[in-house]
Design brief:
The chain is an alpha/beta fold. It contains 16 helices and 21 strands. The strands form four sheets. Strands 1-2-3-12-13-14-15-16 form an eight-stranded parallel barrel, surrounded by eight helices. Helix 4 packs parallel to helix 6 and helix 9 packs across helix 11.
Length: about 475
């Protein structure tokens, strides 16, 4: 595993299904494997889970649920189009083109509706509705591809963010130990709460996909409910205009860091690498900018699902992240995080120590049942590597979405060791584990944080100490 601070989320598809390719992605720096539930059923989810964990137990799993996204059917071949052409979108499988997952969509739309296919390669305008068929005019594009999302800016065609298909996929993910879910169309506190309510008491981390202006405007309220955000620049480009996406990205990244919640920068990070072995200069700059802005993770889509060079794409993102991280300046985020006042105070104090003793402290070891303390420390951008010791494999993998945490390991806690640990024994045990894993060595100086969760004080002693490794 690469000890970069920025995480990489890879969407898994046909290009990455082979075990040797998956191993290549993991070796190249993948931290989280994402599956798109628009295409993946529970059987494919199980296939990916077994494939990933058969290679590494350090890679987390994320299921992406699509909400009321409209998706065109998988017609046999891409259709060549030009501006001015008429495209007829029907309502059933006896039509060449129709919404594959949204019956009677035409009843919710009116003439003049803007219709954007995919990430904006094709744009249509609904001219008229005849019976149950929508007659559209091509306004932009040369190739209409099958199976693409049909975005309808401004249209009100659904009252829920969770479809029955979403509930099935999400429920299966919760039962089989997936660490994260990224939920589409989270535009306000209520839509975020709808997903949270369905999840019940699950520890699965909820990531809100921010895809429209309403989501940007309501980001403070959304962050109170969710565990992190995905900056879905494809949807944002369609909804608010490409010229506004970069500013929205900056706002959202900053807001997430202030709240102590991780952010993922997504969509077309290295799009040209679906066909070419090297990215464009603009794409390289885009990846670097995301790191410098403070994004916790970079995400690939087509690059690792259908692209010709999936492993090369991740190798480049890792290389770009390493280079950009050299220029990230540590900075105390003064805004109180939404984790807890106690955790916020401890991690700010730890960051101050690391910044003021930059040349003396080599690493930070954080023992925390859920790993969130280590994640909250990472938001300050300290230069030292952070190594987290969480209570089980689920938390170990879930915490790897946070920037700054180089590695995470399992430490089961005092209650499982049947010993009444004091400070000295606690430090000795974790130092020993760190040396065993090869992340620290004798002669180094580490900042040691032991953070017992509220109500579970037997997990580990409460420790804040600078320790010389013997």
């Amino acid at each position: 595993m690469h000890e970069k601070k920025t995480k990489i989320v890879c969407t898994i598809g046909p290009s990455s299904w082979e075990p040797e390719i998956m191993k290549g992605l993991i070796d190249a720096g993948m931290n989280i494997a994402r599956v798109n539930a628009a295409f993946a059923d529970p059987e494919e989810m199980d296939r990916v889970r077994k494939l990933v964990h058969g290679i590494s137990d350090e890679v987390a799993l994320m299921i992406d649920i699509k909400g009321p996204e409209v998706r065109l059917n998988k017609f046999p071949e891409p259709i060549e189009i030009q501006v001015g052409d008429e495209i007829i979108i029907g309502n059933s499988d006896d039509c060449e083109i129709y919404p594959s997952n949204y019956k009677d969509l035409y009843k919710s739309l009116e003439a003049g509706q803007r219709m954007v296919v995919g990430d904006g390669d094709v744009e249509l305008e609904l001219k008229e509705i005849q019976g149950d068929k929508m007659h559209c005019e091509v306004k932009l594009g040369k190739l209409l591809k099958p199976g693409k999302a049909l975005n309808l800016p401004g249209a009100d065609y659904s009252s829920t963010v969770l479809t029955e298909k979403d509930k099935e996929r999400l429920g299966h993910g919760m039962k089989t130990g997936w660490e994260m879910v990224s939920a589409s169309f989270i535009s306000d506190k209520e839509s975020a709460q709808e997903v949270r309510d369905f999840m019940g008491d699950s520890e699965m981390r909820l990531i809100a996909k921010i895809e429209n202006q309403e989501g940007v405007d309501n980001i403070d309220d959304i962050l109170e409910i969710v565990d992190g955000i995905m900056i879905a620049r494809g949807g944002l480009g369609v909804e608010i205009g490409l010229e506004k996406v970069n500013i929205a990205q900056r706002i959202l990244t900053k807001k997430a860091a202030e709240a102590g919640k991780p952010s993922i920068t997504a969509t077309q990070m290295l799009e040209s690498m679906t066909e070419n072995p090297r990215p464009t200069r603009a794409e390289a700059s885009d990846a670097t900018t995301a790191v410098l802005l403070g994004s916790d993770a970079l995400m690939t889509s087509a690059e690792t699902t259908t692209g010709k060079y999936p492993v090369d794409a991740i190798k480049f993102l890792t290389k770009a992240a390493h280079e950009a991280e050299r220029y990230v300046q540590p900075k105390i985020v003064t805004t109180p995080s939404l984790i807890s006042r106690e955790t916020d105070a401890i991690t700010k104090a730890a960051a101050e120590v690391c910044i003021n003793m930059d040349d003396e402290i080599d690493a930070v070891l954080v023992v925390s049942k859920t790993g969130r303390t280590a994640g909250n420390l990472g938001r300050h951008g300290i230069s030292q590597p952070i190594y987290a010791f969480a209570s089980d494999g689920f938390y170990k993998r879930a915490v790897m979405l946070y920037k700054g945490i180089n590695r995470a390991f399992v430490y089961e806690g005092i209650e499982n060791d049947c010993q009444d640990y004091d400070r000295d024994i606690g430090i000795k045990v974790i130092i020993g584990l760190g040396k065993e894993k090869g992340v620290i060595r004798s002669g180094q100086t580490v900042l040691f944080l032991g953070r017992p969760p509220m109500g579970r004080k037997e997990f580990f002693p409460n420790i804040f100490e600078i320790v010389k490794v013997e």
